[in-house]
Amino acid sequence: MIDLELRAPAHLVSRRARLYWTVRALIGWIVVAVVELAILAGADGPGPVTATIAVVTGVLALAHLLVMPQWRFRVHRWEITDTAVYTQSGWFTQERRLAPIARIQTVDTQRGPFEQVFGLSNVTVTTASAKGPLKIHALDVGVADHTVAWLTERAQLSGGDGT
Amino acid sequence: MTLARPKVEDATWHRLSPRMLPVHPVIEVGKALPALVGIFLAGSSQGNHIWGLAATAVVAGVSLTRWFTTRLRITPENVQLRHGLLRRKTITTARSRIRTVDVSSHVLHRVLGLARVVIGTGTNDRKGEGRLVLDGLTLPTAAALRDDLLHRGLVDLAKSDTHSDERELARLDRQWIRYAPFTLSGVLTGLVIWGLYWRIEGESGVNLARSGPLRAVSDWLGGLPTATAVVVVVAGLVAFVAITSTAGYILAFWNFRLVRHDGGTLQVTRGLLTTRATSIERRRLVGVQLSEPLLLRAVGAARATVVATGLRTGRGAERGGEVLLPPAPLHDARTVAALALDGTSAIAGELRAHGPAARQRRLTRSLVGAVILGAAVVGAELLGGPLWLLGIAAAILLAAVPLGQDRYRNLGHALIDGRLVTSHGSLVRRRTVLAEEAVIGWNLRRTWFQRRLGIATLVATTAAGRQGYGVWDVPVDEALALATTVTPQLLSQFQAGSPRARPTTSW
Fold first, then answer.
1. Cβ B447–A93 below 8 Å, yes or no?
2. What is the pLDDT of residue B146?
3. DSSP state of B85
4. Which end of chain A is less crowded, N or C, counting CB atoms within 10 A of the terminal residue's CB?
5. Which residues of chain B have a CB within 8 Å of the CB of A128?
């Protein structure tokens, strides 16, 4: 996908992530649809302009719902070795982030209400640089907890203040 | 003589100096001035000053609670600050984490012999956490605290301002003041005055333009022919910016001195009315940045700032702490930067150009930007704007190619003396020198366009300064070579062909 000599991180995120992203995007599109319907109901009846907008919205929504989760699933990758954390994310702009475990300062997990329903969890690894947090989205809860525990332990071993 | 060292260390909670009591109300009333003026003006139209006086009293009273609720404790391990009236908060900073100490005194402080001490630690400085502000220590206490915290040992305080254990690296050359108008700092002053004007007018409902000298000026301008009026206004604005910029330069950098103490600590002292002394421990100073805004570059000048952990990077007053050298001739800026970094040649070294793809991207970007901007201006013209807008559109388009060329020329990177050097920008050209060991990790960013051109933006993340310094539009293989040289272990394990980390059982 990216012709770097740097290979992509080894692991994909949770398989359930695709379903979760689809559902979340679907909710967003439903909100848009409701607004459009409300405007339509306020108008005198479906005219050519409103019909076009509705069709365009529908096509965009369908394309987004079908493509985005698959695409994201392929791009979002992560890997943790004995000494480093490595992530890849993005879409139009893709970004790979690397940080040594020895310089890790905090490891957090965040779970939103929807993510809890899907059994997913996000892991954020921060270093002493405000520009360098590494975020791993949509991991299985078990994997996330394991990762956090492991990273915390490793980071403590290395000591120092991380700057 | 050995001065009785003010005791800064014991386990009891202290208040800040009671001399701060008259300072707080003055400062807070000053901050609330536009609102208070509004209330007064609104009240005076009804012949009633009660509300204005009451509001002032409330502001002053609330400001006093700050002194009564603030306590400070310095133990051998920690510096602790407790404050807050309704929500009490205790901030504890471990002394081992202290990176920089900044002592400043504004006019009121100086009259009363006080200082404000800002203690910087490395962690999350950008969010304002991990930063301790002790506003209102007596000067001797502040100096003793600074020396104590930076482990300079027991220094004779009476002498520490003068010589013996320090070496001067630079001091203000009055010739430099001629660069002040080119800093354009006066533009900001103008905007602040303008904003103040609108706030007072908005909150009082009084139209200031219809009264007094402003009206006289606008009447006089109205009487002139249009062309003359434009010339007069432009000349007036230029003069205003030049004068306020010069005043700003003198206020900020008068008595500027950069010294290195025996222990290696760098200290910058400066200021005409508000004096300021920033001390940076040697191992916290990881780099230097030279920045040349276009106008300063045109007259061959640059300003130098330090890249250090524990110093906040920001605009305006916040930026104050990181000054290494005020706008000065480029040659002097380079010399001082090299001195601060133990004589390295990195700051003036040859950089590696980023090649044709980077050049293409710089040109495309500035052309596309110019076309969009030009189209907007032409659109405004078509909607009935004056004819000279077309001239502006033409100027924008003509400037695009030279701008893109210049942006490309200024791109570059190198590794010199164990330091990463990177340069970019045209309207503000910046060259940064960052010690390799200060690099924490990397962000390798590629937009869709960059992927097509085979280039990337490589950001070295660090705990210092701006937290990340970018090498822009560098060919991917060069980016990887650079990152691998700086942090070999980090990169090698992810190089193509290297074995993947074996997923642990539950992964």
1. yes
2. 83
3. S
4. N
5. 122-123, 309, 440, 463
Asked if A2's CB is within 8 angstroms of B451's CB, the reply is yes
**Residues of A in Cβ contact (< 8 Å) with B280:** none
Does the distance separating the beta carbons of A163 and B463 come in below 8 Å?
Answer: yes
Structure tokens at A72: 């994201």
Span A77-106, pLDDT tens digits: 999 998 899 999 988 889 999 999 988 888
User: Hey, what's the torsion of the CAs at B106, B109, B113, B118, to 10 degrees?
Assistant: -70
Whole-number Å distance between alpha carbons of B322 and B276: 11
- Chain A residues with beta carbon closer than 8 angstroms to that of B464: 163
How many CB atoms within 10 Å of residue B163?
10
Instruction: Show the beta-strand stretches assigned E in A91-156.
Output: 94-100, 104-110, 120-127, 134-140
Residues of chain A in contact with residue B466, where contact means CB-CB under 8 angstroms, are 131
Are B156 and B4 in contact by the 8 Å Cβ rule? The answer is: no
Side-chain-facing half-sphere of B412: CA atoms under 13 Å:
20
Q: What is the pLDDT of residue B145?
A: 84
Asked if B362 and B415 touch (Cβ cutoff 8 Å), the reply is no
Consecutive H or E run containing B45 = none
Quote the pLDDT of residue B162.
43
Contact at CB, A129 and B463, closer than 8 angstroms: yes
What integer pLDDT is reported at residue A25 of this predicted model? 92
What is the distance in angstroms between the Cα of A13 and the nearest Cα belonging to chain B? 10
SS3 state at B8: coil
Contacts of A6 in chain B (CB under 8 A): 444, 480, 491, 494-496
Q: How far is B357 from chain A, CA to nearest CA, in Å?
A: 16
Q: Model confidence at A9, in pLDDT bands (50, 70, 90)?
A: very high
Quickly tell me which residue has 């990169």 as its tokens.
Answer: B491
Q: What letter does residue B128 receive in the DSSP assignment?
A: T
B496 CB neighbours in chain A (<8 A) are 4-7
User: What is the CB neighbour count within 10 angstroms for residue B97?
Assistant: 17
Q: Residue B433's pLDDT band (boundaries 50, 70, 90)?
A: very high
DSSP bridge partners of B137: B115
**3-state helix/strand/coil string of B168-233:** EEEECCHHHHHHHHHHCHHHHHHHHHHHHHHHHHHHHCCCHHHCHHHHHHHHHHHHCCHHHHHHHH
Residue of A nearest to B444 (CA): A96
Size of chain A, expressed as the number of residues it contains:
163
CA A11 to chain centroid, in Å, comes to 14
Residues of A in contact with B123 (CB under 8 A): 105, 128, 163
ipTM score: 0.86
Query: Chain B: nearest CA to A132, how far in angstroms?
Result: 6
> Which of A90, A130, A162 shows the shortest C-beta gap to B126?
A130
Q: Which of B451, B480, B489 sits opposite A5 (nearest CB)?
A: B480
Hunting for tokens 């007094």 — which residue is that? B212
pTM, two decimals, is 0.79
Q: How many Cα neighbours within 13 Å face the side chain of B40? A: 10
Between A and B, how many CB-CB pairs are < 8 A? 142
Q: Structure tokens of B44?
A: 């005076």
Question: Can you state the angle between helices A16-42 and A48-75, rounded to 10 degrees?
Answer: 170
The verdict on a CB contact (< 8 Å) between A98 and B441 is yes
